[in-house]
Amino acid sequence: MYPHICYACKINNAIKNNAFCISCLADISFTDHFLIRDNELIRRIMGRVEIEHGAALHYFHKEGKVQEVIHALKYRNTPQVGIMLGRAFGYCYQDSDLFPDADIIIPIPVQYKRLQKRGYNQSFMIAKGINEVTQIPIGQKFLVKNKKLVSQTKKIRSDRFDNVLTSFVLNNGDLLVGKRVLIVDDVLTTGATIEAAITKLQEVDDITIQVGVLALALD
Question: Which of 88, 103, 137, 195 has its CA 20 to 30 A from that of 94?
Answer without folding.
Answer: 195
